[in-house]
Design a protein that fits this description.
alpha+beta; 7-stranded mixed beta sheet; 5-stranded antiparallel beta sheet; 14 strands; about 30% helix
Length: about 325
């Protein structure tokens, strides 16, 4: 019995007794009880209904590979080499990187219901309870080397924003790798992060893994452990199908990647700037132990952020630089 099998049974929102769950999974009630306790430790909130059993405290739609693929347009299906749905992984990015070492990886996508060692940019931990986020990694091989990758993470951000806008949500983009969403109090919180990892030759073929982690639901207990403003999609828009969202995200990313090597970031530049969270606003630039104050301007055709600092303009390239809104 896996956590995933148990979650799929509970995902109908109905009350299930330990005996029913045990029969369906072919295990003892004691084994079911142990798994239920494990779910609690993973941040999955359960309700005990006296004398009847257990149900999830919130609705949940497990990811289903067949449902995702059938909802892809033909053009995206043609570009998709293989789709993996994993109940639990240390890291979906690591999974796809390993696929590249096995001679595969290009056009392959891995969704994970739970990551135990997922990380964001600058090594930060990215963690959400089972099935309450959308975490995916996509592998792509670029033949022309790393120079053609300028602005790729920003183009990914635009794709994510465009998909969400079709659901009636209005995200903002924070340079270089975050998608923000206004909470009920109007404060912008981090909804999703992008992590791009590159291996290969600077001048020749290189292999890229694009990782995206998006909060769909965030229990209050988890929010309390996060030291920055965060947002969850289902707080802004309930009733979105996870499998449809996964398919829409995948379709947009594959379509973008099909032309990125030849077209670069330029076609996405205006789209990014129109969603720029901090355009014209005071920011703090953080680089290692150093920080400085500036005003954010637009991004250029290479995805660099221009800022005004002490009445002089300068550009910020990606890497280990982070920006914060300065109040």
């Amino acid at each position: 019995m896996t956590i995933g099998n148990l979650m799929r049974l509970l995902s109908d929102g109905e009350v299930h007794s330990g005996e029913q769950l045990g029969e369906a999974l072919g295990v003892s009630r004691a084994a079911v009880w142990k798994q239920l306790k494990k779910l609690d430790a993973l941040g999955v909130e359960l309700e005990a209904v006296k004398g009847r059993g257990y149900r999830l405290a919130y609705p949940l739609e497990p990811l289903d590979g067949a449902k995702i693929v059938e909802r892809l347009p033909a053009s995206a299906r043609h570009l998709l080499t293989r789709l993996f749905i994993e109940d639990q992984l240390p890291s979906s990015n690591q999974y796809v990187r390993e696929r590249f070492t096995q001679g595969a990886g290009h056009g392959e996508v891995c969704f994970a219901e739970l990551q135990t060692a997922g990380r964001g940019r600058r090594g930060r931990v990215w963690s959400t309870p089972w099935g309450q986020s959308l975490m995916l990694s996509l592998g792509w091989r670029f033949e022309s080397g790393v120079n053609v990758l300028e602005g790729l993470s920003l183009a990914v951000g635009v794709v994510v924003a465009q998909v969400l806008e079709r659901y009636g949500v209005s995200p903002k983009l924070k340079w270089p790798n975050d998608i923000l969403l206004a909470e009920k109090d109007g404060e912008l919180g981090k909804l999703a992060g992008i992590l791009i990892e590159v291996t290969g030759d600077a001048a020749g073929p290189c292999e890229v893994v694009i990782g995206i982690g998006m909060n769909l639901s965030l229990p209050d207990s988890l929010r309390a452990t996060i030291d920055q403003p965060v947002a969850a999609l289902f707080d802004a828009k309930a009733g979105i199908s996870r499998n449809q969202l996964a398919a829409d995200m995948l379709s947009g990313l594959l379509d973008m990647l099909a032309g990125f090597e030849s077209e670069g970031f330029t076609p996405w530049q205006d789209e990014w700037n129109s969603r720029h969270a901090y355009a014209g606003l005071p920011i703090r630039i953080i680089q290692g132990e150093r920080s400085s104050d500036a005003v954010a301007r637009e991004v250029d055709e290479s995805g660099n952020l221009w800022v005004t600092e002490n009445d002089h303009s300068r550009r910020l390239a990606g890497g280990e630089i982070s920006v914060r809104r300065r109040l």
